[in-house]
Design brief:
The complex is a heterotrimer of chains A (384), B (249) and C (150).
Chain A: E1 4-11, H1 22-37, E2 46-50, H2 61-68, E3 76-79, H3 85-98, E4 104-111, H4 118-125, H5 141-156, H6 160-174, H7 188-192, E5 196-198, E6 201-202, E7 212-220, H8 221-227, E8 232-241, H9 256-269, E9 278-280, H10 286-295, H11 304-309, H12 326-330, H13 337-350, E10 363-370, E11 375-383
Parallel strand pairs in A: 2-3, 2-4, 9-10
Antiparallel strand pairs in A: 1-7, 1-8, 4-7, 5-6, 8-11, 10-11
Chain B: E1 9-13, H1 18-29, E2 33-38, H2 42-54, E3 59-63, H3 69-83, E4 88-91, H4 106-134, E5 137-142, H5 155-175, E6 180-187, H6 193-196, H7 200-209, H8 218-228, E7 240-243
Parallel strand pairs in B: 1-2, 1-4, 2-3, 4-5, 5-6, 6-7
Helix pairs in contact in B: 1-8, 3-4, 4-5
Chain C: H1 18-24, E1 29-33, E2 39-40, E3 55-59, E4 63-72, E5 85-92, E6 97-102, E7 116-123, E8 132-137
Classes of the chains: A alpha/beta (384), B alpha/beta (249), C mainly beta (150).
Chain lengths: 384, 249, 150
């Protein structure tokens, strides 16, 4: 079966985009990716849209995006798996090319979250858990990760400071990323003084909802070699699920779906954690990044806190992670995040990351989680 | 019919006379431990306790004015301690002090409202707090057909008796989910000590009103109360059952 | 009447709807597959192990051990008046796990991972409509509180 490569990448500005509709945001990223690839729209066979529909007033999003991008009558459809929708879209495009059905596919992760009023968003938040047995007690998305943090701190001695070091690192890099929502560094004092959300997590432990879009163009090996000189290859694609409900997880100090997806990706790519030069992980909350280090094998179980405290995940450390600001500083337009992570790794592997460049980055990894770990997609990308 | 009242504990206010005594002894016969409250009639109260104990049950008489909120709570507390629990509350203690409104004094009004209506509130509340935690219990409030209709020279009495009915219905709504039934028995004319004070021509008038041509005995009323204290009536709540021989239809 | 379950209920229609009826009567029920015997809490109609749809309820003791917890300060719609509140995830003695509020018998300072708890059915007493839930209480707490052994 053919290799699949990324031949074009584009990213819009993440933030409170009250200046644009979701299809206009999609166009920003799409235009940039097409220019980057150097192709016209008739070179595309199809598109896949990654987005979470409940946040939009527009019903049936892919249709309106396809139309606005001028891609009718090409095929399109939506992939939705909460915050991993972007990666699901990439996987779907990858599958279609591997199967030989399509040759060049545009993947657009796009999301508006600020179209809803605060009460509407709060009501949606109330249904984020397993609605039958958990939401009845007023659970929220941060509350789940708080519970993971409480147990992680109990079992492994992870500290409050170690959690906040993740936020500090990601804000450091966000300040150097013009596409990021938050462009300022933060201090430990400021973070500790922020409002409580669900103990022990405070506002600075949590990523922010945002609007935004990102786009990658995927191509078969034959087409990629024809079109691009800087193809980044999708070498390992892992995907796994875990129970929606925390009540049916084997443990609450890591994400089993991430472990499984990571293992699958490593195997397919023929590499191990030690070979990864740069990574994007799903830091919806600070504890999530620490658990990701462990789930992906960047350190032993329980030693995630030490890894960040030792600054091993900064550029220059053992394994730079989220050096574009991560979800924390970039913002988290949930449908776009998976594609945004892929964009960043592609940039790193191409050597185009400017002051955030990881030297000699030839193998990179993205880790995109849906919800509280019911879905996880791990991608390993390589530059030849 | 086995009413299933064996081993239950009950309080009956105004239990030294009339309907109260009939209810107290009737419950004891069905297997209940019975505590009564009374105001003046020491000898009669003692006699009721003696009869209850004679039947092999625990008996207790507490002298108290039912219009005292604290006395009501203390009595419930005492009964729960001495009997080991409380399952049934029958509010029966009541007075009348008749008079046309232009002659009715403030004291006449207040006293009847406090003894009758407030008294029922005091004991219903004290019992409700036990029953709610326990997730079970029976409350029967004895009102009167004069709470369903207006009676000449009884603005105060009718108000209190009508109030008892509305209160019981509201309470039934609050306690239903905790498995507690709250019902009302509304007698017509009953041959009790209270009736002995009524002039003969009024008694005759009452008999004439009654389609069955007779006045109730205390037992006629007590039987219905006892039925409402049992699980036989577990699906009846917020109800008013007249025991009036058809005096007011 | 599964709509009775919880302060705000989003799943009124379910095959395990009788769970709420039992809860109102003070009984905590898990499910058991009639075909292969696999048990589950929360109860489920369709067996995870053998896929049979034939299940029955069985009564659980409510004995539980605390797995993790958090105090929710920023609350979702419908829970604003009761915030902040503490939720815990517990491992239940017979099988499964539950997520529930801590009740009045447990002080915040006492909460510790690994502590023994009793999961007790509860009724929201200040709502006119029937609404039920369960809470995490000190071991030995019962649903029906009587003063004597009856």
């Amino acid at each position: 079966m053919t290799r699949v490569g990324i031949i074009g990448i584009g990213h819009g500005v993440f933030g409170r985009r009250s200046d644009a509709t979701v299809q206009e945001l999609a166009f920003e990223a799409f235009r940039a990716a097409m220019e980057d690839a150097g192709i016209d729209r008739d070179a595309l066979d199809a598109s896949v849209i990654g987005s979470v529909p409940e946040y939009h007033k527009q019903r049936s999003l892919p249709g309106v995006v396809q139309e606005y991008l001028g891609l009718n009558p090409k095929p399109t459809w939506l992939t939705e798996v909460a915050c991993a929708s972007g990666s699901a879209a990439i996987r779907t495009a990858w599958m279609s090319i591997k199967a030989g059905v399509h040759k060049v596919v545009a993947v657009i992760g796009c999301q508006k979250m600020t179209e809803l009023s605060t009460p509407e968003i709060l009501a949606l938040m109330g249904r984020v858990g397993e609605v039958q047995w958990e939401s009845v007690f007023g659970t929220t998305f941060p509350a789940y990760y708080s519970m993971f943090a409480v147990r992680h701190m109990h079992d492994f001695g992870t500290t409050r400071e170690q959690l906040l070091e993740v936020a500090i690192k990601n804000h450091y890099y966000g300040a150097r990323n013009p596409c990021a929502l938050f462009q300022k560094e933060i201090t430990m004092e400021k973070a500790k003084a922020s409002d409580e959300v669900a103990t022990p997590l405070q506002v600075y432990d949590c990523c922010a909802n945002a609007d935004g879009a990102a786009c990658v163009i995927l191509a078969s090996e034959e087409k990629a070699k024809e079109i691009s000189k800087k193809t980044v290859w999708l070498e390992g694609m892992g995907c796994a699920t875990a129970s929606m409900s925390v009540l049916r997880r084997p443990n609450l100090v890591g994400l089993p779906s991430a472990v499984k997806a990571g293992t699958e990706a490593y195997e397919m790519a023929g590499v191990g954690p030690q070979d990864i030069k740069v990574a994007q992980v799903h830091d919806c909350f600070t504890i999530a990044e620490i658990m990701a280090y462990e789930d992906l094998g960047f350190c032993k179980k329980g030693e995630g806190g030490k890894l960040i405290a030792d600054r091993q995940t900064y550029v220059g450390g053992k394994i730079p992670v989220n050096v574009d600001g991560g979800l924390k500083a970039k913002g988290h337009p949930i449908g776009a995040t998976g594609v945004s992570q892929t964009y960043e790794i592609a940039k790193q592997l191409r050597g185009e990351a400017g002051e955030r460049q990881v030297p000699d980055a030839d193998i990179g990894l993205t880790h995109n989680v849906g919800g509280i770990g019911q879905y996880c997609f791990v991608q390993i990308l390589r530059r030849d | 019919m086995d009413l299933g009242l064996e081993g239950k504990s009950a309080i009956v206010t105004g239990g030294s006379l009339g309907i109260g005594t009939a209810v107290a002894l009737g419950l004891a016969k069905e297997g209940c431990n019975v505590a009564i409250n009374y105001r003046r009639h020491d000898a009669e109260a003692k006699e009721v306790v003696r009869k209850v104990e004679e039947m092999g049950r625990k008996g207790l008489a507490v002298k108290a004015d039912v219009s005292s909120y604290d006395d009501a709570h203390n009595m419930v507390k005492k009964v729960v301690e001495e009997f080991g629990g409380l399952d049934i509350m029958v509010c029966n203690a009541g007075i009348n002090w008749d008079g046309v409104i232009w002659k009715m004094t403030e004291k006449q009004w207040d006293t009847v409202i406090n003894v009758n209506l407030k008294g029922y509130f005091n004991y219903n509340k004290a019992a409700a707090m036990v029953f709610k935690d326990q997730k079970g219990g029976k409350i029967v409030n004895i009102s009167s057909i004069n709470g369903l209709r207006g009676k000449f020279a009884q603005t105060n009495y009718s108000a209190s008796k009508g109030g008892e009915i509305a209160m019981s219905k509201a309470l039934a709504k609050e306690l239903g989910k905790f498995n507690v039934n709250v019902n009302v028995v509304a007698p017509g004319m009953v041959m009790t000590e209270m009736a002995l004070n009524i002039p003969p021509e009024f008694l005759n008038k009452a008999v004439d009103e009654t389609v069955m041509g007779r006045i109730a005995s205390p037992g006629d009323c007590a039987n219905v109360v006892i039925f409402l204290c049992s699980d036989m009536s577990r699906h009846i709540t917020g109800e008013v059952i007249k025991v009036d021989g058809g005096q007011y239809i | 009447m599964f709509k009775w379950f919880g302060k705000v209920n989003f799943a009124p229609f379910t095959k395990v709807t009788d769970f709420a009826q039992y809860l109102k009567d003070g009984r905590l029920m898990g499910s058991k597959c009639k075909k292969c015997g696999a048990t589950s809490f929360p109860p489920r109609a369709d067996c995870e192990a053998c896929m049979s749809g034939d299940f029955e309820f069985f009564e659980m003791s409510g004995k539980a051990t605390l797995h993790t917890y958090t105090k929710i300060v920023a609350a979702p719609t419908g829970f604003e008046e009761v915030a902040p509140y503490i939720v815990g995830v517990v491992d239940l003695e017979e099988c499964g796990r539950a997520l529930a509020w801590f009740g009045e018998t447990v002080k915040e300072e006492e909460i510790d991972i690994g502590m023994e708890l009793q999961m007790v059915p509860q009724i929201f007493d200040e709502l006119e409509e029937i609404k039920v839930y369960y809470s995490l209480e000190k071991p030995g707490t019962t649903w029906s509180k009587t003063n004597s052994a009856r």
